[in-house]
Amino acid sequence: MSEQIIERPVPADGPTAKAPQPEGKPERVASLWRDGWTDLRKRPMFLISAFIIVCLLVLAVAPGLFTARSPFSNGFCDLTNSMTGPGHGHWFGYDVQGCDIYTRTVWGTRNSIIVGVVSTVLTTVLGGVIGILAGLTGGWIDSLVSRFSEVFYALPILIGGLLVMSMVGSSNVWTVSLVLSVLGWPQVFRIMRGEVIGNKYNDYVAAARALGAGPMRIAFRHILPNTLAPIVVISTMNLGVYIATEAALSYLGIGVQSPSISWGLMINDAQDRWLTSPHALLFPAGALSLTVLAFIMLGDVVRDAFDPKLR
Amino acid sequence: MGRFVVRRVLQAIPVLIGVTFLIYCLVFLLPGDPIRALMGEKQDPHLALVLRARYHLDDPLVLQYWHYISGVFRGDLGTTYTGRSISDIVAQRFPITLKLALTAFGFEAVIGILAGILSALKRGKFLDNVVFIATLFLISIPVFVLGNVLQLELGVKFKLTPVAGIEDGWPASYVLPGLVLAATSMAYIARLTRTSMIESVRSDYVRTAIAKGLPRRRVIGVHALRNSLIPVVTFLGMDLGSLMGGAIITERVFNLPGIGGQLAQSVSLREGPVVVGLVTLLILIYLVANLVVDVLYAVLDPRIRYE
Fold first, then answer.
1. What's the pLDDT score for residue A28?
2. Which residues, if any, are the signal sequence (chain B) (predicted)?
């Protein structure tokens, strides 16, 4: 990853000393990020997944644009429609309470996206910061934090979720995100710590130290940019995984609770009548699968574009 | 080698104690009073006091944990609040989950690795694309949806497999749940094997093996495969633990009386010792599997030595 160093020369101490731009046309420097981005834009899979994700984000931000009524409005559900199959005006049919499945599926997007994004951001920040500090400090602090992370790592996420969610009591998207983050940070931590340990004996770190950079500056201005690629890759892939886990927790009855809308919860409600009216299960399941698919595809292409080991 | 194993086992002990303590804390913090729940409408304050004393419920958390863990080291997992031995529950429930997880493990190892090899050898061809798209779908479709769909199609409509329960024993009752449980990991293994195989097929030692006239089967099966299995084995080792944990959903879809249902029930009844016992076993399996993986590295790649 020497390109990174070329692009940003090791600054002298004090404020960032910008490399003087040579006269005339600046030479094009290919950083890992610019290379990756150029690579990314050319991949059809990236364009497809980005398109789906943009659509999902629009649905999450403004579900009202796509549905005539809010699923929380009075008289939205009409029991006389219970389990009616798809038809004109109600393309996804009705569920057992007589609620329109299309409207509920559209409005359910928001919770899935919130859980995916919040959990991913929290695990990345938490695992990244703890990983960089543990990796640089070394010694007994590193051993202690590593053992501590193993305790969480060894706990299967659904089992841990079952315990923590029952403890928390009130389940909504925010508590679910928090629980997933508490259980998920060790994964990012391990990668970050490994990367930092692999990087900290490099010459550029010694050079920065020789120039008088403090430990915080070395950690966040020098080592962090060089360890970021694998973290970005794993976090992108985790987006889909967390969305799927939220649905699984809600499916088990320990995630998002009614009257909040979650695809996992809708699937759970529809499961008992799956034999007679499969539509109630298939539409939320399709939405969930499509969302996870889009994020997994994004993770795939981002990995191919940014993972230094694969380039 | 021996010293390496001993060191790893010693390292696992604090993790195990940490996990049991963590779970104990979580169960301790669960809202509700288990003895009141046990008595229902006929509350008897005197009996409640006796029971609370017997199960050390009024002791501080650390003391309760100490009672529990010292019992575990004497080989006593304790009893539930209704007086049933927890070892009994474990003996009844655990084998079912273990069978399910091992069935899934077998599926993902065999099918995943085979699909990976095939797709690496036919890189860029039709088969490679089929495998790629199949893995995308397997990863994206949630386990509980896949389980429901396959249960309906194969179990109810075509009557190929038992619909639910374990009455047909192993393997019949476990094939479909095992396949469903294995689906996601199978896809990851196929991808991992493919990447790793492509790398080793290009390497010098494979070229040498071809150049000296070894049959293709031996070059692929021994020289290339063995060297590309290291990341796959790492994944498999880590995955056994997640399979046991993930079984909670598959067990629910197919109504298998494994530890998943028991865990959910015990959490709601606040039966700390049951929850801790079952989860500790899960984590023990995870730790042992990881140890086996570390030892396997040396078998797969003789360059790795344990000093």
1. 59
2. none
Percentage of chain B beyond pLDDT 70 is 98
DSSP classification of residue A202? S
Top residue of B146, B148, B251, B280 to mutate, by most chain A CBs within 10 Å, is B148
| pTM (predicted TM-score) | 0.83
Rounded-to-integer distance, Cα A180 and Cα A115, Å:
9
Residue in A closest to B143 by C-alpha? A248
- Does B137 reach chain A within 8 Å, measured CB to CB? yes
Identify whether A15 is part of a domain: no
Instruction: Give mean pLDDT, residues B92-103.
Output: 91
B131–A contact, CB cutoff 8 A: no
CA distance B154 to chain A (A): 13
Q: How far apart are CA A262 and CA A213, in angstroms?
A: 49
pLDDT score of A17 more than 50: no
Task: Give dist(CA A131, CA A145) in Å, integer.
Answer: 9
Residue A273 lies in a domain: yes
From residue B131, give the alpha-carbon distance in Å to each of A48, A88, A245, B138: 19, 38, 24, 10
Residue A31 domain flag: no
Tell me the CA distances in angstroms from A107 to A60, A104, A262, B155, one per residue in order.
7, 5, 9, 33
- Measured between CA atoms, how close is A181 to chain B, in angstroms? 16
* Number of domains chain A is built from: 1
The CATH code of the domain that includes A282 is 1.10.3720.10
Report pLDDT for A25: 52
Interface of B with A in 228-247 (CB under 8 A): 241-242, 244-246
CA–CA distance, A267 with A255 (Å, rounded to integer): 13
Give the residue from chain B lying closest to A247, CA to CA.
Answer: B142
Please determine, for residue B295, whether its predicted confidence score (pLDDT) is greater than 90.
Answer: no
pLDDT of residue B307: 53
Q: What domains are defined for chain B?
A: 2-73 (no CATH), 92-300 (1.10.3720.10)
Bridge partner residues of B79 (DSSP): B85
Outline where B164-271 has alpha helix (H). Answer: 172-201, 204-211, 216-218, 225-254, 259-269
User: Cβ A159–B18 below 8 Å, yes or no?
Assistant: no
Q: Which domain holds residue A275?
A: 37-310
Tokens of B23: 């779970």
**Which 139-178 residues of chain B touch chain A by CB within 8 A?**
139-145, 148, 152, 156
CB proximity B275 to A under 8 Å: yes
**What is the residue whose two structure tokens read 């990087």?**
A199
pLDDT attached to residue A16: 45
In a domain, A300, yes or no: yes
CB-CB contact of A222 with A201 (8 Å): no
CA distances to B48, B49, B50, B81 from B42, in Å? 11, 14, 15, 16
Residue of B nearest to A146 (CA): B15
pLDDT of residue A310: 55
The tokens describing B175, both together, are 């094939």
